[in-house]
Request: fold
Amino acid sequence: MLDLIFDRMEFPSPEKKISIFTDGNIQYTIVLPELYCEPCLNYGQMIKVKMKNKVICVIREKIMGNPDISSISTSVVEGYNNKIRQRLSCFGRKTASFSKKVRGYITTLNISQFVHNFIDIKYNCQSPTMLESVTDHLWIWGELFKLSSSVIK
Reply:
């Protein structure tokens, strides 16, 4: 399935740059140029200034390339992180539910991403993978179990 996704991706070039927006974590400014060719990257940061747990100011900065300042946002990632915390108790804050091994976290995330992409209805009664023509129908749990049991053998 991943090969179908990569076949649909358009790789960045200096003429068609990839746009990435993050929070103010300084590590992104180090890692992103290593992962992507810097001339192929429009990178901006959105920094939320908080006081007493309330956002008092939002600062949007161009870091690399020439991203449109008004499009710099982290709301999609924040929404997805919120969904993970709500659905997967081991990722919630201050929770008693946890995985003892990293593999447990990875498995939990893989299943959650599968449900998000193949089972959950998103747009016009379609899943994201239907919109990208990776599959032609909404999957059901039985198909996931059948696929995983054939991979394990």
